[in-house]
């Protein structure tokens, strides 16, 4: 389908996963999958956790650290090899693999994310996660991966007033925690090769049946997000008003790029291409105003994409296969109407 519509970057659509964040933690020594976990180990200010509780849905399972963390095998390598088998040798460089956010279980569980008898504090816990992440990237790079995307809706939660207020009520310092997560990211990426592109995707939830969990523009985290996390590009949700305006893009530095998720992946209705094109040009004006570039120069650091995946959960969103094809075709058509080399 991706080839059919002319998209160069090739992914497997996470078809081999139950949830989008599968593939890392459960393959590390020291982590244990827990069925029917008690509700009191979850942080109820986390938007998706809160949504489940409000709707009387108990989380079915989670993954907790019960021993020293050690990378013993790659959970992503089989997925990469399976995808390599489906493409031509000259297309391997175009493969993109999505990875779990390193702080995924910590935000959800806080002090319950690891046994205090194993790690005295979160810094020790994060240090071993970062070491495992570096090893994972090393293995994937050796196998030919040159483009990785870290999927992290949790960072977008730091834009949600509901979570920020909930953390304050719980005595948690949201600013300090965000800073610690940024440090974790940079530790995870400290040894990645210069020719390995790392992207960071933020959205506000993309659960089965097209459900989202939070709202709020990127304004609250833009300066830190764009300037302190050592990634190359940002894949940002921008298909609805809940993602806010383009104004935060003023803080995007000249050495980084942004992929605007303008085409919704939640519903089958097709957007108006001309309206989308005007939005891209509006975003370029904002980027240029912050960087001092011309609008044309800023436009060269912008790309377009669907807002998120069509199936972050195995049950997927409210679209059929033909709907997905049309969405991808719209993305390609939009891109070629703006960039001659798209």
TrEMBL record:
<dbReference type="InterPro" id="IPR038071">
    <property type="entry name" value="UROD/MetE-like_sf"/>
</dbReference>
<dbReference type="GO" id="GO:0008270">
    <property type="term" value="F:zinc ion binding"/>
</dbReference>
<dbReference type="Pfam" id="PF01717">
    <property type="entry name" value="Meth_synt_2"/>
</dbReference>
<dbReference type="InterPro" id="IPR002629">
    <property type="entry name" value="Met_Synth_C/arc"/>
</dbReference>
<dbReference type="GO" id="GO:0003871">
    <property type="term" value="F:5-methyltetrahydropteroyltriglutamate-homocysteine S-methyltransferase activity"/>
</dbReference>
<feature type="domain" description="Cobalamin-independent methionine synthase MetE C-terminal/archaeal">
    <location>
        <begin position="121"/>
        <end position="314"/>
    </location>
</feature>
<protein>
    <recommendedName>
        <fullName>Cobalamin-independent methionine synthase MetE C-terminal/archaeal domain-containing protein</fullName>
    </recommendedName>
</protein>
<dbReference type="GO" id="GO:0009086">
    <property type="term" value="P:methionine biosynthetic process"/>
</dbReference>
């Amino acid at each position: 389908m991706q080839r059919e519509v002319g998209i160069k970057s090739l992914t497997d659509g996470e078809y081999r996963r139950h949830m989008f964040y599968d593939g890392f933690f459960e393959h590390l020594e020291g982590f244990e999958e827990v069925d029917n976990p008690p509700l009191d180990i979850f942080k109820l200010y986390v938007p998706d956790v809160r949504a489940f509780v409000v709707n009387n849905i108990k989380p079915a399972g989670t993954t907790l650290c019960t021993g020293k963390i050690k990378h013993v095998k790659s959970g992503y390598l089989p997925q990469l090899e399976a995808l390599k088998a489906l493409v031509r040798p000259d297309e391997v460089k175009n493969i993109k693999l999505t990875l779990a956010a390193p702080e995924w279980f910590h935000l959800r569980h806080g002090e319950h994310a690891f046994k205090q008898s194993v790690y005295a504090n979160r810094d020790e816990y994060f240090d071993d996660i970062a070491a495992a992440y570096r090893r994972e990237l090393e293995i994937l790079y050796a196998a030919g991966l040159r483009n990785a995307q870290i999927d992290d809706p949790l960072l977008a939660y730091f834009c949600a007033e509901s979570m920020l207020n909930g953390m304050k009520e719980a005595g948690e310092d949201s600013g300090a925690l965000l800073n610690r997560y940024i440090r974790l990211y940079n530790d995870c990426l400290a040894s990645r090769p210069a020719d390995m592109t790392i992207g960071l995707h933020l959205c506000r939830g993309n659960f089965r049946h097209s459900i989202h969990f939070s709202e709020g523009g990127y304004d609250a985290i833009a300066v830190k997000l764009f300037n302190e996390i050592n990634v190359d590009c940002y894949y940002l949700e921008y298909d609805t008003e809940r993602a806010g305006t383009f104004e935060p893009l003023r803080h995007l530095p000249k050495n980084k790029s942004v992929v605007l998720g303008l085409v919704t992946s939640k519903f089958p209705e097709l957007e108006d291409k001309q309206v989308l094109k005007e939005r891209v040009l509006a975003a370029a004006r904002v980027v240029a105003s912050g960087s001092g570039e011309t609008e044309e120069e800023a436009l060269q650091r912008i790309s377009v994409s669907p807002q998120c995946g069509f199936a972050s959960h195995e049950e997927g969103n409210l679209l059929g296969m033909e709907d997905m094809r049309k969405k991808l075709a719209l993305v390609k058509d939009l891109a070629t109407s703006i960039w001659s080399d798209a």
